[in-house]
Design goal:
single chain; 358 residues; alpha/beta; Rossmann fold; Dehydroquinate synthase-like, alpha domain; seven-stranded mixed sheet; two-stranded antiparallel ribbon; 14 helices; 11 strands; binds nicotinamide-adenine-dinucleotide; binds ligand LNCXM5UN; binds zinc ion
Amino acid sequence: MTDATIIPVASGGGYDVHVGRGLVDSLGSVLPPNAAKVLVIHAPAMAPTAERLREQLAGRTEVLLAEVPDAEGAKRVEVAAFCWQILGQTDFTRTDAIVGLGGGATTDLAGFVAATWLRGVPWVAVPTTVLGAVDAAVGGKTGINTAEGKNLVGAFWAPRAVVADLDLVATLPKNDILAGFAEIVKAGFIADERILELIEADVETATDPNSAVFRELIERAIRVKAEVVSDDFTEQGRREMLNYGHTLGHAIEHAERYRWRHGSAVAIGMIFAAELSRLATGLPDAVVDRHRAILESLTLPTTYPIGRWKTLLATMQRDKKARAGMLRFIVLDDVGRPRVLNGTDESLLFSAYQEVGS
Ligand SMILES: NC(=O)c1ccc[n+]([C@@H]2O[C@H](COP(=O)([O-])OP(=O)(O)OC[C@H]3O[C@@H](n4cnc5c(N)ncnc54)[C@H](O)[C@@H]3O)[C@@H](O)[C@H]2O)c1
Ligand SMILES: O=C(O)C(=O)C[C@@H](O)[C@H](O)[C@H](O)COP(=O)(O)O
Ligand SMILES: [Zn+2]
């Protein structure tokens, strides 16, 4: 692909993340050469792009389109079943391929459908949000939500390529761009302080999809994720660090019935994780304050009602990092030094939450 930055991922069979502009027009080059059929699972906002893909690939392969509900509405078993039905009725085989075109919710679903159809067919992720490009589409964590919690059903199933076309991301509403920055900030705090410095230097330029700094931030965050998942695809250890801010974040998404943006919930979750780090590991006050300053500069939420604590705690018990009923959190010893905190007692957790509670 021309003008693309290539970021390799070494796990899940090995694949590349392509970052650049106008890339979707050469999507055919990353599809399996012998695929007779391609199912494009896409978000409603991406219908015109899906149609463009159909025209582009006509003659080479049969392109089927599956428009799925917007945002978290896509991550439901009924929607997976709708996709499985299309695959069944079109005799989709293991040499065919799925394309996930949309934000993280769409690519999580598309990857899950690919992982489960015939126990695994090839798929390509085409993220169209900031959050999808820097995080969701990379690493092969696929899944759907259940009534009990976020991403409780899923599979590790790597794509054969990720195509992050920044021309597609440019149409994203500003609030979605800002929410996606929560994951970029996460990458900054756990592994790349330069990310934080670039946002602090000029938040307007950093979040302008046409700026060079924006592209640098996208690429830096992808490199963080690619490096971690190359080392630990199935989350046996190091990959857990990517869950910084997510234990409380996912509980907030559940409490809000999946109507909140993921990045907004993770922003509050990171404040909680930073406050917990201050209490448990002695994370300096300045680093905790830095979380608030950066997330507020992005106009992301940093507080949540104090009265919701018991509800959130109950949901957090189902967090995938929990072991034998014991909650585990990702905390920071310092910027760039995340680690797991085991066996946290409830009063310590509540003390940290009091700093978040409004
Ligand atoms: N698998 C992973 O490793 C991983 C990592 C991070 C997040 N996630 C998941 O990703 C999801 C959040 O992803 P998201 O923030 O991209 O949200 P999203 O997929 O809900 O997309 C946000 C909104 O933007 C719209 N949209 C998408 N692209 C657009 C475009 N180019 N122009 C205009 N509108 C567009 C969508 O239709 C939606 O309304 C959550 O479900 C989260 O759990 C997964
Ligand atoms: O890739 C990972 O690993 C992550 O934890 C990245 C997170 O940003 C992402 O939201 C992920 O979907 C959370 O996974 P879960 O296992 O906590 O459901
Ligand atoms: Zn996330």
